[in-house]
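Notebook entry, structure prediction.
Reason for the run: the old model in the group folder had no record of what sequence produced it. Starting over properly, with the input documented here first.
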Amino acid sequence: MLTGLSIRELAVVKRLDLEWESGFTALTGETGAGKSILLTALELGLGERADADLIRSGAERAEVILEFNLRDADAARLWLRDNDLENGEVCLIRRSLVNKGRHRAFINDRPVSLEALLALGQHLVEIHGQHAHLRLCQAAARRQLLDAHAGCQDLLTELAELCQTWRSVCQRLQQLRQNASDQALKEEFLRFQIQELEAAKVEALDFHALLAEHTRLANLDKILICAQMQLQRLYEADPAVIDQVEQAARELESIASLTPEFTEVAELIRSAQIQLEEAGSILRQFLGQLESDPARLQCLEEQLSTLHDLARKHRVRPEELSLRLAQMRAELAELTSQEGQIAQLERQRETLESRYRQMAAELSARRRASAEELAARITELIRKLGMPHGSLVIEVHTDAEAEPRPDGLDRVEFLVTTNPGLPLKPLAKVASGGELSRLSLAIQVACSQARAVPTLIFDEVDSGIGGGVAEIVGRHLRELGRHRQVLCVTHLPQVAAQAHHHYLVTKTTDGCETETQVYPLMVADRKHEIARMLGGVKITAQTLCTAEEMLQWNQ
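New structure, fully documented this time:
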Protein backbone atom coordinates (compact mmCIF):
# COMPACT_ATOMS: atom_id res chain seq x y z
CA MET A 1 0.00 0.00 0.00
CA LEU A 2 0.97 3.68 -0.33
CA THR A 3 2.68 4.80 2.88
CA GLY A 4 4.24 8.12 1.88
CA LEU A 5 3.87 10.95 -0.61
CA SER A 6 6.35 13.82 -0.85
CA ILE A 7 5.93 16.70 -3.29
CA ARG A 8 8.37 19.52 -3.99
CA GLU A 9 7.68 22.59 -6.15
CA LEU A 10 4.82 21.04 -8.14
CA ALA A 11 2.18 23.50 -9.39
CA VAL A 12 0.57 25.08 -6.27
CA VAL A 13 2.44 22.77 -3.87
CA LYS A 14 5.72 24.12 -2.55
CA ARG A 15 6.52 21.43 -0.01
CA LEU A 16 4.31 18.59 1.15
CA ASP A 17 5.06 15.39 3.08
CA LEU A 18 2.17 13.01 3.78
CA GLU A 19 1.96 9.65 5.49
CA TRP A 20 -0.88 7.32 4.59
CA GLU A 21 -2.41 4.45 6.51
CA SER A 22 -4.43 1.41 5.58
CA GLY A 23 -8.22 1.56 5.42
CA PHE A 24 -10.51 4.16 3.87
CA THR A 25 -9.12 7.72 3.69
CA ALA A 26 -11.23 10.69 2.62
CA LEU A 27 -9.72 13.85 1.11
CA THR A 28 -11.97 16.89 1.24
CA GLY A 29 -11.71 20.64 0.78
CA GLU A 30 -13.20 23.57 -1.02
CA THR A 31 -13.50 23.41 -4.78
CA GLY A 32 -10.22 24.64 -6.25
CA ALA A 33 -8.23 23.94 -3.08
CA GLY A 34 -5.81 21.70 -5.01
CA LYS A 35 -7.10 18.17 -4.43
CA SER A 36 -6.43 17.37 -8.07
CA ILE A 37 -2.70 18.16 -7.72
CA LEU A 38 -2.38 15.22 -5.30
CA LEU A 39 -3.75 12.91 -7.97
CA THR A 40 -1.50 14.55 -10.55
CA ALA A 41 1.51 13.85 -8.32
CA LEU A 42 0.47 10.21 -7.91
CA GLU A 43 -0.03 9.82 -11.64
CA LEU A 44 3.40 11.33 -12.33
CA GLY A 45 4.97 8.91 -9.88
CA LEU A 46 3.22 6.05 -11.67
CA GLY A 47 4.56 6.92 -15.12
CA GLU A 48 2.23 9.48 -16.68
CA ARG A 49 3.93 11.86 -19.08
CA ALA A 50 4.87 15.23 -17.64
CA ASP A 51 5.00 18.83 -18.82
CA ALA A 52 7.57 21.32 -17.55
CA ASP A 53 4.64 23.72 -16.94
CA LEU A 54 3.84 21.65 -13.84
CA ILE A 55 6.96 22.98 -12.14
CA ARG A 56 6.07 25.70 -9.65
CA SER A 57 6.70 29.24 -10.92
CA GLY A 58 10.20 30.39 -10.03
CA ALA A 59 11.52 26.88 -9.30
CA GLU A 60 14.10 25.02 -11.38
CA ARG A 61 12.78 21.53 -10.70
CA ALA A 62 9.90 19.61 -9.17
CA GLU A 63 9.99 16.21 -7.51
CA VAL A 64 7.51 13.56 -6.45
CA ILE A 65 8.44 10.65 -4.15
CA LEU A 66 6.10 7.72 -3.49
CA GLU A 67 6.77 5.11 -0.82
CA PHE A 68 4.98 1.75 -0.88
CA ASN A 69 4.86 -1.15 1.54
CA LEU A 70 4.80 -4.33 -0.55
CA ARG A 71 3.63 -6.72 2.14
CA ASP A 72 0.33 -7.33 0.28
CA ALA A 73 1.57 -6.62 -3.24
CA ASP A 74 2.89 -9.97 -4.48
CA ALA A 75 2.56 -9.03 -8.16
CA ALA A 76 4.59 -5.84 -7.64
CA ARG A 77 7.30 -7.72 -5.74
CA LEU A 78 7.51 -10.29 -8.51
CA TRP A 79 7.83 -7.53 -11.13
CA LEU A 80 10.59 -5.84 -9.13
CA ARG A 81 12.42 -9.15 -8.71
CA ASP A 82 12.16 -9.95 -12.43
CA ASN A 83 13.59 -6.52 -13.28
CA ASP A 84 16.40 -6.59 -10.65
CA LEU A 85 14.85 -3.68 -8.71
CA GLU A 86 13.74 -5.44 -5.54
CA ASN A 87 14.58 -3.84 -2.18
CA GLY A 88 12.79 -5.85 0.49
CA GLU A 89 9.22 -4.92 1.44
CA VAL A 90 9.67 -1.22 0.66
CA CYS A 91 9.55 0.38 -2.78
CA LEU A 92 10.58 4.01 -3.38
CA ILE A 93 9.56 5.72 -6.62
CA ARG A 94 11.03 9.12 -7.45
CA ARG A 95 10.08 11.33 -10.38
CA SER A 96 12.08 14.48 -11.10
CA LEU A 97 11.01 17.24 -13.51
CA VAL A 98 13.39 19.97 -14.65
CA ASN A 99 12.83 23.20 -16.57
CA LYS A 100 15.74 22.55 -18.89
CA GLY A 101 16.93 19.04 -19.55
CA ARG A 102 15.58 15.55 -19.34
CA HIS A 103 13.02 14.44 -16.76
CA ARG A 104 14.15 11.41 -14.78
CA ALA A 105 12.51 8.51 -12.95
CA PHE A 106 13.89 6.13 -10.32
CA ILE A 107 12.74 2.93 -8.63
CA ASN A 108 14.65 2.16 -5.45
CA ASP A 109 17.24 4.77 -6.48
CA ARG A 110 17.90 3.13 -9.82
CA PRO A 111 17.05 5.04 -13.04
CA VAL A 112 14.20 3.57 -15.08
CA SER A 113 12.02 4.46 -18.06
CA LEU A 114 8.44 5.73 -17.93
CA GLU A 115 7.36 2.40 -19.39
CA ALA A 116 8.86 0.68 -16.35
CA LEU A 117 6.96 3.02 -13.99
CA LEU A 118 3.70 2.31 -15.83
CA ALA A 119 4.31 -1.44 -15.71
CA LEU A 120 5.02 -1.35 -11.97
CA GLY A 121 2.22 1.12 -11.23
CA GLN A 122 -0.51 -1.17 -12.51
CA HIS A 123 0.43 -3.62 -9.73
CA LEU A 124 0.37 -0.92 -7.03
CA VAL A 125 -2.43 1.60 -7.63
CA GLU A 126 -5.74 1.68 -9.47
CA ILE A 127 -7.23 5.13 -10.11
CA HIS A 128 -10.95 5.62 -10.84
CA GLY A 129 -11.66 9.09 -12.18
CA GLN A 130 -14.81 11.16 -11.90
CA HIS A 131 -15.51 10.78 -15.62
CA ALA A 132 -15.28 6.99 -15.61
CA HIS A 133 -18.94 6.75 -16.75
CA LEU A 134 -17.90 8.45 -20.01
CA ARG A 135 -15.20 5.83 -20.59
CA LEU A 136 -17.75 3.07 -20.04
CA CYS A 137 -19.51 4.30 -23.18
CA GLN A 138 -16.43 3.18 -25.11
CA ALA A 139 -16.33 -0.42 -26.26
CA ALA A 140 -12.62 -0.78 -25.48
CA ALA A 141 -13.10 0.37 -21.86
CA ARG A 142 -15.93 -2.14 -21.28
CA ARG A 143 -13.86 -4.95 -22.74
CA GLN A 144 -10.85 -4.02 -20.59
CA LEU A 145 -12.97 -4.05 -17.41
CA LEU A 146 -14.33 -7.49 -18.24
CA ASP A 147 -10.87 -8.82 -19.11
CA ALA A 148 -9.42 -7.48 -15.86
CA HIS A 149 -12.17 -9.22 -13.90
CA ALA A 150 -11.70 -12.45 -15.86
CA GLY A 151 -7.91 -12.41 -15.47
CA CYS A 152 -7.31 -12.69 -19.23
CA GLN A 153 -4.07 -10.72 -19.45
CA ASP A 154 -1.77 -13.67 -20.20
CA LEU A 155 -4.11 -14.98 -22.86
CA LEU A 156 -4.51 -11.49 -24.35
CA THR A 157 -0.73 -11.00 -24.52
CA GLU A 158 -0.28 -14.30 -26.35
CA LEU A 159 -3.20 -13.54 -28.67
CA ALA A 160 -1.81 -10.09 -29.52
CA GLU A 161 1.62 -11.55 -30.35
CA LEU A 162 -0.01 -14.18 -32.54
CA CYS A 163 -2.08 -11.50 -34.30
CA GLN A 164 1.04 -9.42 -34.95
CA THR A 165 2.83 -12.43 -36.49
CA TRP A 166 -0.23 -13.16 -38.64
CA ARG A 167 -0.32 -9.56 -39.88
CA SER A 168 3.41 -9.62 -40.72
CA VAL A 169 2.91 -12.78 -42.80
CA CYS A 170 -0.10 -11.19 -44.56
CA GLN A 171 1.92 -8.08 -45.40
CA ARG A 172 4.75 -10.19 -46.82
CA LEU A 173 2.22 -12.18 -48.87
CA GLN A 174 0.66 -9.01 -50.24
CA GLN A 175 4.07 -7.69 -51.21
CA LEU A 176 5.04 -10.92 -52.96
CA ARG A 177 1.72 -11.11 -54.80
CA GLN A 178 2.10 -7.53 -55.95
CA ASN A 179 5.58 -8.38 -57.17
CA ALA A 180 4.24 -11.47 -58.87
CA SER A 181 1.83 -9.38 -60.96
CA ASP A 182 4.85 -7.70 -62.59
CA GLN A 183 7.01 -10.82 -62.43
CA ALA A 184 6.56 -11.88 -66.09
CA LEU A 185 7.64 -8.49 -67.39
CA LYS A 186 10.58 -8.30 -65.00
CA GLU A 187 11.69 -11.84 -65.84
CA GLU A 188 11.54 -11.13 -69.58
CA PHE A 189 13.57 -7.95 -69.21
CA LEU A 190 16.16 -9.62 -66.95
CA ARG A 191 16.53 -12.57 -69.32
CA PHE A 192 17.11 -10.16 -72.24
CA GLN A 193 19.79 -8.27 -70.28
CA ILE A 194 21.47 -11.52 -69.19
CA GLN A 195 21.51 -12.85 -72.76
CA GLU A 196 22.97 -9.56 -73.96
CA LEU A 197 25.85 -9.80 -71.47
CA GLU A 198 26.36 -13.50 -72.18
CA ALA A 199 26.52 -12.77 -75.92
CA ALA A 200 29.24 -10.25 -75.21
CA LYS A 201 31.12 -12.98 -73.29
CA VAL A 202 31.85 -10.61 -70.42
CA GLU A 203 32.66 -13.47 -68.06
CA ALA A 204 35.51 -14.83 -70.23
CA LEU A 205 36.95 -11.51 -71.35
CA ASP A 206 39.93 -9.74 -69.82
CA PHE A 207 39.07 -6.11 -70.47
CA HIS A 208 42.53 -4.80 -69.62
CA ALA A 209 44.19 -7.34 -71.94
CA LEU A 210 41.81 -6.39 -74.77
CA LEU A 211 42.56 -2.73 -74.18
CA ALA A 212 46.33 -3.38 -74.29
CA GLU A 213 46.08 -5.38 -77.53
CA HIS A 214 43.94 -2.69 -79.17
CA THR A 215 46.38 0.00 -78.12
CA ARG A 216 49.28 -1.91 -79.71
CA LEU A 217 47.48 -2.58 -83.04
CA ALA A 218 46.12 0.96 -83.27
CA ASN A 219 49.64 2.39 -82.86
CA LEU A 220 51.51 -0.26 -84.91
CA ASP A 221 53.03 2.14 -87.46
CA LYS A 222 54.41 4.39 -84.74
CA ILE A 223 55.83 1.38 -82.90
CA LEU A 224 57.50 -0.03 -86.06
CA ILE A 225 59.10 3.31 -87.03
CA CYS A 226 60.46 3.83 -83.54
CA ALA A 227 61.87 0.27 -83.26
CA GLN A 228 63.50 0.33 -86.71
CA MET A 229 65.05 3.75 -86.04
CA GLN A 230 66.62 2.48 -82.84
CA LEU A 231 68.00 -0.61 -84.62
CA GLN A 232 69.49 1.64 -87.25
CA ARG A 233 71.15 3.78 -84.60
CA LEU A 234 72.59 0.72 -82.96
CA TYR A 235 74.01 -0.98 -86.05
CA GLU A 236 73.70 1.02 -89.30
CA ALA A 237 74.32 4.65 -88.46
CA ASP A 238 77.60 6.34 -89.22
CA PRO A 239 79.05 5.88 -86.75
CA ALA A 240 76.85 3.08 -85.22
CA VAL A 241 76.37 3.05 -81.45
CA ILE A 242 77.67 -0.51 -81.16
CA ASP A 243 80.83 0.39 -83.09
CA GLN A 244 81.48 3.44 -80.90
CA VAL A 245 81.10 1.39 -77.73
CA GLU A 246 83.42 -1.30 -79.14
CA GLN A 247 86.07 1.31 -80.00
CA ALA A 248 85.85 2.90 -76.57
CA ALA A 249 86.29 -0.48 -74.85
CA ARG A 250 89.39 -1.35 -76.97
CA GLU A 251 91.09 1.95 -76.38
CA LEU A 252 90.55 1.79 -72.62
CA GLU A 253 91.79 -1.79 -72.53
CA SER A 254 94.95 -0.74 -74.42
CA ILE A 255 95.94 1.77 -71.75
CA ALA A 256 94.75 -0.35 -68.80
CA SER A 257 98.31 -1.70 -68.43
CA LEU A 258 99.55 1.87 -68.10
CA THR A 259 96.74 3.03 -65.82
CA PRO A 260 95.20 0.09 -63.91
CA GLU A 261 92.26 2.24 -62.78
CA PHE A 262 90.86 2.12 -66.34
CA THR A 263 90.46 -1.67 -66.22
CA GLU A 264 87.17 -1.41 -64.27
CA VAL A 265 85.87 1.30 -66.62
CA ALA A 266 86.67 -0.88 -69.64
CA GLU A 267 84.81 -3.82 -68.07
CA LEU A 268 81.72 -1.66 -67.47
CA ILE A 269 81.71 -0.52 -71.09
CA ARG A 270 82.02 -4.17 -72.27
CA SER A 271 79.01 -5.01 -70.07
CA ALA A 272 77.06 -2.14 -71.63
CA GLN A 273 78.04 -3.44 -75.06
CA ILE A 274 76.61 -6.87 -74.25
CA GLN A 275 73.30 -5.30 -73.02
CA LEU A 276 73.07 -3.15 -76.15
CA GLU A 277 73.53 -6.23 -78.34
CA GLU A 278 70.78 -8.07 -76.33
CA ALA A 279 68.48 -5.05 -76.76
CA GLY A 280 69.12 -5.09 -80.49
CA SER A 281 68.34 -8.80 -80.67
CA ILE A 282 65.03 -8.29 -78.85
CA LEU A 283 64.15 -5.40 -81.19
CA ARG A 284 64.83 -7.58 -84.28
CA GLN A 285 62.71 -10.41 -82.83
CA PHE A 286 59.87 -8.01 -81.95
CA LEU A 287 59.96 -6.42 -85.43
CA GLY A 288 59.81 -9.84 -86.96
CA GLN A 289 56.62 -10.63 -85.09
CA LEU A 290 54.85 -7.34 -85.70
CA GLU A 291 52.56 -7.21 -88.65
CA SER A 292 49.53 -5.16 -89.50
CA ASP A 293 46.12 -6.88 -88.87
CA PRO A 294 43.30 -4.48 -89.83
CA ALA A 295 40.64 -7.17 -89.37
CA ARG A 296 41.77 -7.90 -85.81
CA LEU A 297 41.93 -4.18 -85.01
CA GLN A 298 38.38 -3.67 -86.28
CA CYS A 299 37.19 -6.66 -84.26
CA LEU A 300 38.79 -5.27 -81.09
CA GLU A 301 37.28 -1.84 -81.68
CA GLU A 302 33.81 -3.32 -82.09
CA GLN A 303 34.27 -5.47 -79.02
CA LEU A 304 35.47 -2.58 -76.85
CA SER A 305 32.67 -0.35 -78.16
CA THR A 306 30.12 -3.01 -77.19
CA LEU A 307 31.62 -3.32 -73.71
CA HIS A 308 31.56 0.46 -73.18
CA ASP A 309 27.93 0.64 -74.36
CA LEU A 310 26.92 -2.14 -71.98
CA ALA A 311 28.81 -0.49 -69.14
CA ARG A 312 26.95 2.81 -69.68
CA LYS A 313 23.65 0.96 -69.92
CA HIS A 314 24.19 -0.83 -66.61
CA ARG A 315 25.95 2.16 -64.98
CA VAL A 316 29.11 0.24 -64.14
CA ARG A 317 32.72 0.24 -65.34
CA PRO A 318 33.48 -2.17 -68.23
CA GLU A 319 35.58 -4.40 -65.98
CA GLU A 320 32.54 -4.77 -63.61
CA LEU A 321 30.19 -6.21 -66.23
CA SER A 322 30.82 -9.82 -65.18
CA LEU A 323 29.82 -8.91 -61.56
CA ARG A 324 26.65 -7.21 -62.85
CA LEU A 325 25.81 -10.36 -64.80
CA ALA A 326 26.06 -12.45 -61.61
CA GLN A 327 23.78 -9.99 -59.79
CA MET A 328 21.11 -10.16 -62.47
CA ARG A 329 21.21 -13.96 -62.44
CA ALA A 330 20.61 -13.83 -58.66
CA GLU A 331 17.67 -11.42 -59.16
CA LEU A 332 16.18 -13.73 -61.76
CA ALA A 333 16.56 -16.71 -59.44
CA GLU A 334 14.79 -14.80 -56.66
CA LEU A 335 11.92 -13.87 -58.96
CA THR A 336 11.44 -17.41 -60.14
CA SER A 337 11.47 -18.65 -56.52
CA GLN A 338 8.67 -16.30 -55.39
CA GLU A 339 5.93 -18.76 -56.32
CA GLY A 340 7.33 -21.24 -53.81
CA GLN A 341 7.65 -18.49 -51.19
CA ILE A 342 4.01 -17.46 -51.73
CA ALA A 343 2.82 -21.04 -51.28
CA GLN A 344 4.88 -21.43 -48.11
CA LEU A 345 3.62 -18.14 -46.65
CA GLU A 346 0.02 -19.07 -47.44
CA ARG A 347 0.41 -22.28 -45.48
CA GLN A 348 1.99 -20.34 -42.61
CA ARG A 349 -0.85 -17.80 -42.65
CA GLU A 350 -3.49 -20.51 -42.53
CA THR A 351 -1.75 -22.21 -39.61
CA LEU A 352 -1.44 -18.94 -37.68
CA GLU A 353 -5.05 -17.98 -38.32
CA SER A 354 -6.31 -21.38 -37.25
CA ARG A 355 -4.36 -21.15 -34.01
CA TYR A 356 -5.52 -17.57 -33.48
CA ARG A 357 -9.20 -18.51 -33.83
CA GLN A 358 -8.79 -21.36 -31.37
CA MET A 359 -7.28 -18.99 -28.80
CA ALA A 360 -9.89 -16.31 -29.55
CA ALA A 361 -12.64 -18.88 -28.92
CA GLU A 362 -11.03 -19.75 -25.57
CA LEU A 363 -10.91 -16.03 -24.71
CA SER A 364 -14.58 -15.61 -25.66
CA ALA A 365 -15.58 -18.52 -23.44
CA ARG A 366 -13.65 -17.07 -20.51
CA ARG A 367 -15.22 -13.67 -21.05
CA ARG A 368 -18.75 -15.11 -21.11
CA ALA A 369 -18.20 -17.07 -17.92
CA SER A 370 -16.83 -13.99 -16.16
CA ALA A 371 -19.50 -11.68 -17.63
CA GLU A 372 -22.32 -13.56 -15.88
CA GLU A 373 -20.59 -13.40 -12.50
CA LEU A 374 -19.58 -9.74 -12.85
CA ALA A 375 -23.05 -8.68 -14.03
CA ALA A 376 -24.65 -10.35 -11.00
CA ARG A 377 -22.26 -8.53 -8.67
CA ILE A 378 -22.88 -5.15 -10.34
CA THR A 379 -26.66 -5.70 -10.25
CA GLU A 380 -26.48 -6.35 -6.53
CA LEU A 381 -24.54 -3.12 -6.00
CA ILE A 382 -26.74 -0.83 -8.13
CA ARG A 383 -29.82 -2.03 -6.27
CA LYS A 384 -28.15 -0.96 -3.06
CA LEU A 385 -27.31 2.41 -4.62
CA GLY A 386 -30.88 3.64 -4.86
CA MET A 387 -32.01 1.68 -7.92
CA PRO A 388 -33.93 -1.27 -6.35
CA HIS A 389 -35.24 -2.46 -9.71
CA GLY A 390 -32.01 -1.91 -11.60
CA SER A 391 -30.37 -4.72 -13.51
CA LEU A 392 -27.26 -5.04 -15.64
CA VAL A 393 -26.43 -7.69 -18.20
CA ILE A 394 -23.06 -8.09 -19.90
CA GLU A 395 -23.30 -9.51 -23.41
CA VAL A 396 -20.31 -10.82 -25.33
CA HIS A 397 -20.92 -10.82 -29.09
CA THR A 398 -18.42 -12.81 -31.14
CA ASP A 399 -17.81 -12.39 -34.86
CA ALA A 400 -16.05 -15.66 -35.58
CA GLU A 401 -15.42 -14.70 -39.22
CA ALA A 402 -13.88 -11.30 -38.49
CA GLU A 403 -10.27 -10.52 -39.31
CA PRO A 404 -7.93 -11.27 -36.38
CA ARG A 405 -7.48 -8.39 -33.92
CA PRO A 406 -5.07 -8.11 -30.96
CA ASP A 407 -7.95 -8.04 -28.45
CA GLY A 408 -9.92 -10.94 -29.90
CA LEU A 409 -13.13 -11.20 -31.89
CA ASP A 410 -15.59 -10.02 -29.23
CA ARG A 411 -17.66 -6.89 -28.70
CA VAL A 412 -18.64 -6.37 -25.07
CA GLU A 413 -21.91 -4.57 -24.33
CA PHE A 414 -23.25 -3.46 -20.94
CA LEU A 415 -27.08 -3.47 -21.07
CA VAL A 416 -29.00 -1.78 -18.28
CA THR A 417 -32.56 -1.31 -17.08
CA THR A 418 -33.30 0.95 -14.11
CA ASN A 419 -37.07 0.61 -13.78
CA PRO A 420 -39.45 -2.37 -13.89
CA GLY A 421 -41.03 -3.06 -17.23
CA LEU A 422 -38.37 -1.19 -19.21
CA PRO A 423 -36.25 -3.12 -21.71
CA LEU A 424 -32.49 -3.49 -21.39
CA LYS A 425 -30.61 -0.70 -23.16
CA PRO A 426 -26.93 -0.02 -23.82
CA LEU A 427 -25.23 1.82 -20.98
CA ALA A 428 -24.62 4.88 -23.19
CA LYS A 429 -28.39 5.34 -23.63
CA VAL A 430 -29.21 5.62 -19.93
CA ALA A 431 -30.85 9.05 -19.71
CA SER A 432 -30.14 10.19 -16.15
CA GLY A 433 -26.68 11.52 -15.28
CA GLY A 434 -27.21 10.46 -11.67
CA GLU A 435 -28.04 6.95 -12.75
CA LEU A 436 -24.94 6.85 -14.93
CA SER A 437 -22.78 7.93 -12.00
CA ARG A 438 -24.23 5.25 -9.74
CA LEU A 439 -23.89 2.61 -12.42
CA SER A 440 -20.30 3.65 -13.02
CA LEU A 441 -19.52 3.54 -9.29
CA ALA A 442 -21.11 0.10 -8.93
CA ILE A 443 -19.07 -1.20 -11.89
CA GLN A 444 -15.83 0.24 -10.53
CA VAL A 445 -16.40 -1.12 -7.04
CA ALA A 446 -17.34 -4.56 -8.39
CA CYS A 447 -14.26 -4.67 -10.62
CA SER A 448 -12.01 -3.43 -7.83
CA GLN A 449 -13.17 -6.22 -5.53
CA ALA A 450 -12.04 -8.73 -8.10
CA ARG A 451 -8.52 -7.32 -8.47
CA ALA A 452 -5.53 -7.66 -6.19
CA VAL A 453 -4.18 -4.09 -6.52
CA PRO A 454 -3.47 -2.97 -2.92
CA THR A 455 -4.36 0.75 -3.31
CA LEU A 456 -7.58 2.09 -4.86
CA ILE A 457 -8.09 5.80 -5.55
CA PHE A 458 -11.54 7.26 -6.29
CA ASP A 459 -11.61 10.82 -7.62
CA GLU A 460 -15.09 12.29 -7.04
CA VAL A 461 -16.77 9.19 -8.46
CA ASP A 462 -19.71 9.99 -6.18
CA SER A 463 -20.59 13.15 -8.11
CA GLY A 464 -24.25 13.29 -9.13
CA ILE A 465 -25.55 11.37 -6.10
CA GLY A 466 -26.52 12.36 -2.58
CA GLY A 467 -28.70 11.59 0.42
CA GLY A 468 -29.13 7.96 1.39
CA VAL A 469 -27.38 6.76 -1.76
CA ALA A 470 -24.29 8.72 -0.77
CA GLU A 471 -24.31 7.00 2.59
CA ILE A 472 -24.46 3.61 0.90
CA VAL A 473 -21.52 4.63 -1.31
CA GLY A 474 -19.58 5.51 1.81
CA ARG A 475 -20.38 2.14 3.35
CA HIS A 476 -19.08 0.32 0.30
CA LEU A 477 -15.90 2.34 0.27
CA ARG A 478 -15.43 1.69 3.98
CA GLU A 479 -16.00 -2.03 3.37
CA LEU A 480 -13.41 -1.97 0.58
CA GLY A 481 -11.07 -0.28 3.04
CA ARG A 482 -11.19 -3.29 5.34
CA HIS A 483 -9.24 -5.30 2.78
CA ARG A 484 -7.48 -2.65 0.67
CA GLN A 485 -6.20 0.87 1.04
CA VAL A 486 -8.83 3.26 -0.35
CA LEU A 487 -8.26 6.96 -0.99
CA CYS A 488 -11.31 8.97 -2.03
CA VAL A 489 -11.59 12.62 -3.07
CA THR A 490 -15.17 13.58 -2.23
CA HIS A 491 -17.52 16.51 -1.64
CA LEU A 492 -20.16 14.39 0.12
CA PRO A 493 -20.27 14.50 3.93
CA GLN A 494 -22.07 11.13 3.98
CA VAL A 495 -19.02 9.56 2.31
CA ALA A 496 -16.34 11.46 4.23
CA ALA A 497 -17.96 10.68 7.62
CA GLN A 498 -17.46 6.95 7.05
CA ALA A 499 -13.74 7.17 6.32
CA HIS A 500 -11.23 5.66 8.75
CA HIS A 501 -8.96 8.68 8.12
CA HIS A 502 -9.67 12.19 6.94
CA TYR A 503 -7.38 14.76 5.27
CA LEU A 504 -8.25 18.37 4.55
CA VAL A 505 -6.86 20.09 1.45
CA THR A 506 -6.53 23.88 1.76
CA LYS A 507 -5.16 26.68 -0.38
CA THR A 508 -3.68 29.90 0.98
CA THR A 509 -2.33 33.03 -0.65
CA ASP A 510 -0.43 36.10 0.48
CA GLY A 511 -1.29 38.06 -2.62
CA CYS A 512 1.92 37.09 -4.36
CA GLU A 513 2.03 33.29 -4.07
CA THR A 514 -0.58 30.57 -3.73
CA GLU A 515 0.16 27.36 -1.87
CA THR A 516 -1.76 24.15 -1.22
CA GLN A 517 -1.38 22.23 2.04
CA VAL A 518 -2.88 18.99 3.31
CA TYR A 519 -3.61 18.30 7.00
CA PRO A 520 -4.74 15.12 8.77
CA LEU A 521 -7.89 15.85 10.82
CA MET A 522 -8.53 14.71 14.36
CA VAL A 523 -12.06 14.08 15.67
CA ALA A 524 -12.88 17.70 16.54
CA ASP A 525 -11.49 19.00 13.26
CA ARG A 526 -13.37 16.32 11.34
CA LYS A 527 -16.62 17.47 12.92
CA HIS A 528 -16.10 21.03 11.67
CA GLU A 529 -15.14 19.85 8.19
CA ILE A 530 -18.21 17.56 7.95
CA ALA A 531 -20.32 20.48 9.18
CA ARG A 532 -18.83 22.71 6.50
CA MET A 533 -19.69 20.09 3.86
CA LEU A 534 -23.24 19.85 5.24
CA GLY A 535 -23.93 23.53 5.70
CA GLY A 536 -23.54 26.72 3.76
CA VAL A 537 -21.52 29.82 4.50
CA LYS A 538 -22.63 29.89 8.15
CA ILE A 539 -22.13 26.76 10.27
CA THR A 540 -24.76 26.50 13.00
CA ALA A 541 -24.81 24.51 16.22
CA GLN A 542 -27.39 22.23 14.63
CA THR A 543 -25.07 21.55 11.73
CA LEU A 544 -22.24 20.71 14.10
CA CYS A 545 -24.54 18.39 16.03
CA THR A 546 -25.54 16.60 12.82
CA ALA A 547 -21.89 16.24 11.83
CA GLU A 548 -21.04 14.78 15.22
CA GLU A 549 -23.90 12.26 14.94
CA MET A 550 -22.73 11.19 11.47
CA LEU A 551 -19.24 10.56 12.79
CA GLN A 552 -20.53 8.64 15.82
CA TRP A 553 -22.70 6.40 13.64
CA ASN A 554 -19.67 5.31 11.68
CA GLN A 555 -17.23 4.59 14.51
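Summary: The mean pLDDT is 85.
The old model has been moved to the deprecated folder.
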